[in-house]
Amino acid sequence: MTDSPLLHPTIVLVEPLYGGNLGSVARVMANFGLRDLVLVNPAPGILEDPRLEPMARKAVELVRGARIVGTLAEAVADAELALGFTTRLGRRRNDGLELRQAVEQAARFLAPGARIAAVFGREDAGLTTAELDLCHWLVRIPTDRGLPSLNLAQAVGLFCYEVRMARLAAAPESVPYRPATVAEMEGMYAHFERVLWEIGFIEEESPERMMNQIRRIFSRRLPSPRDVRILRGILSKVELALRRPELRKAPPE
């Protein structure tokens, strides 16, 4: 499908540790036709690891051409859908999607050419809560509870496989949808937090918990850039009314 939104998703590896894993990731990406790789603060010397090239084989140039950035925020700033892969469940992580469901929804609803980033964490610790907060959807690979954690390259390989199958099977809606980017969403969340502090809605004891809930509300909906502009316009009017009470209008009777 040449018009699939899943034609060129980006694989983002956060602080990868081992050259062998990095080479294996490159190889499995090439196996399924994915080419865009971003490394966030990779371990020192990983690109010179002697195990990298034997594991990557013909895909070693994919690693050599990878974009290297310092933070996850930079890596996903222009992503219209960022998928954060995690095995950890709990009270704050109970709204994730299984891998196949996430890929099918992305293929069905996003516009052709939409920028999708699949974010994978460190081999030894995964993604932090703050890093998962930057992702629109949390994604779980349904492994056995006895050993839920996959090798990094295995996890990337399963995503690449599902992407390829969705490319072949799914068609976008007749009116494709393009969500706001991570950077646009982060600007809105910062604006929300500032206003909620001003009106006394956020309590000092639990500001992070409240903002996490707000993030989850909007992540489920995937607002469009226009949605974000409208919401921020409302927030700006609230700020103005707080500073200039004479501008407040009474609701119609």
Can you count the helices? 10
- Give the helix level as a range of percent: 40-55%
CATH topology of the largest domain: Alpha/beta knot
Task: Give start-end ranges of low-pLDDT stretches.
Answer: none
Helix/strand-derived class? alpha/beta
By CATH, the architecture of the largest domain is named: 3-Layer(aba) Sandwich
The CATH superfamily name of the largest domain is SPOUT methyltransferase, trefoil knot domain
Q: How many domains, in number, for the residues?
A: 2
- Helix and strand pattern: EHEHHEHEEHEHEHHHH
User: Between the first and last Cα atoms, what is the distance in angstroms?
Assistant: 55 Å
Give the C-alpha Rg. Answer: 20 Å
Q: What's the arrangement of strands in the largest beta sheet?
A: 3-2-1-6-4-7-5
Task: Estimate the global geometry from the Cα principal axes.
Answer: elongated
Give the strand tally: 7
Average pLDDT confidence is 87
Largest sheet: 7 strands, parallel
* Residues in β-strands, percent: 5-15%
Q: What is the CATH first-level class name of the largest domain?
A: Alpha Beta
Protein topology:
Elements: E1 10-14, H1 19-31, E2 36-40, H2 52-56, H3 60-64, E3 67-69, H4 72-75, E4 81-85, E5 97-98, H5 99-109, E6 116-120, H6 129-133, E7 137-140, H7 152-169, H8 182-198, H9 207-221, H10 225-243
Parallel strand pairs: 1-2, 1-6, 2-3, 4-6, 4-7, 5-7
Helix pairs in contact: 1-7, 5-7, 8-10
